[in-house]
Amino acid sequence: MEIEMPALDEATKLAPLIERVHGANHPELTRVRELTEAIAGAESPSDKDAFFAELRTVTNNYTVPADGCEAYQGTYASLKAADQENTRAL
Questions:
Q1: What is the C-alpha separation between 18 and 68, in angstroms, rounded?
Q2: For residues 4 and 43, is the Cβ–Cβ distance under 8 A?
Q3: Which of 8, 31, 33, 34 could form a disulfide linkage to 15, CB 3.0–4.6 angstroms apart?
Q4: Per-residue pLDDT reduced to its tens digit, 11-23
């Protein structure tokens, strides 16, 4: 069962942007983008759950670093919201 996740849609748009802007100083953003794309492509909440688990690890539970811009903050906030939406759907 696929669920609507507007927060994930927003994060999918922003992840490549923050990777481009901050990737040199934050190489983990490549994995954040890859996981965001994998989550967007997964169909069921259980399929998405493993990707979200890795995303929580990679992002230190969606903690934005001190030099993170507004888009960085928005991306992590959207990913956290999507993770919570997915957890409710499990």
A1: 9
A2: no
A3: 33
A4: 999 999 999 999 9
